[in-house]
Amino acid sequence: MARKSNAETAANPGRLKQIALTYKMTRKADPKVGLIVAGVGIVTFGVFLAIGFLIDHPVYLGILGFLVAFLAMAIVFGRRAERAAFGQMEGQPGAAAAVLDNVGRGWTTTPAIAMTRQQDIVHRAVGKAGVVLIAEGNPNRVKPLLANEKKKMARIMPDVPVHDFIVGTGEGEVPLKKVRTTLLKLPRVLTGPQITAVNDKLRAMGDLMSNMPLPKGPMPKGMKMPRGGKMR
């Protein structure tokens, strides 16, 4: 019990520090986040307290209002922090890979299976929907990359559905913040064993970046391909 208590005590400062860091980062992109979150909490608590006085139970409704207000503040802050994070990542090479890395269980993602010298990138995700190719960069440059990867998929596994889309804000493109929901909305057609078989085939086939370790998250702007790697 003592060890568990010590571990929880040590973990709490870490969580508080993370929340404070998230708030600072969010405030840079959203200066009014503090006022908005505080306003949501005050209004929510005030409504519950007012109802408590009307029904002659201000203490009970006050306690309930405090809990609901805290929950509402957490939800609003989380959404605005997420929006600010996507806004900062938007347009950076490798941003889609960071989103795919947190898409959830049931998906196997492989970043940068194809790339141009201008850092236009194609990533791949495999799940119950089949194979999904996600491209980011200049549409005119990534479309040939997507076409090549789709041909490759059709050649080695013709019975597996292959989806593709380009991340961006242009017509027909998927915004970065909607990448995860777009994947999760795709129809589920593969079983667990079929997904394993697809991943095994893809691993055996190999990828452009298989011998190059990639950092998680957006790719550094000064990053260059090694001489041994092939460029498209």
Question: What distinguishing features does this structure have?
Answer:
4 strands; alpha+beta; disordered C terminus; Integral membrane protein; 12% strand; single chain; transmembrane helix; 232 residues; transmembrane; membrane; DUF4191
How would you portray this structure in words?
The chain has 232 residues and is an alpha+beta fold. Helix content is 55%, strand content 12%. It is built from 7 helices and 4 strands, in the order ααααβββαβαα. The chain has a 4-stranded mixed beta sheet. Strand 3 (130-136), helix 5 and strand 4 form a beta-alpha-beta unit. Helix 1 (2-29) crosses helix 3 (58-89) and helix 2 (33-54) runs antiparallel to helix 3 (58-89). The longest helix has 32 residues, at 58-89. The chain is elongated, with a radius of gyration of 23 Å. It starts with a helix and ends in a 27-residue tail after the last helix. The chain crosses the membrane at residues 33-53, 59-78. Residues 210-232 are annotated as: Disordered.
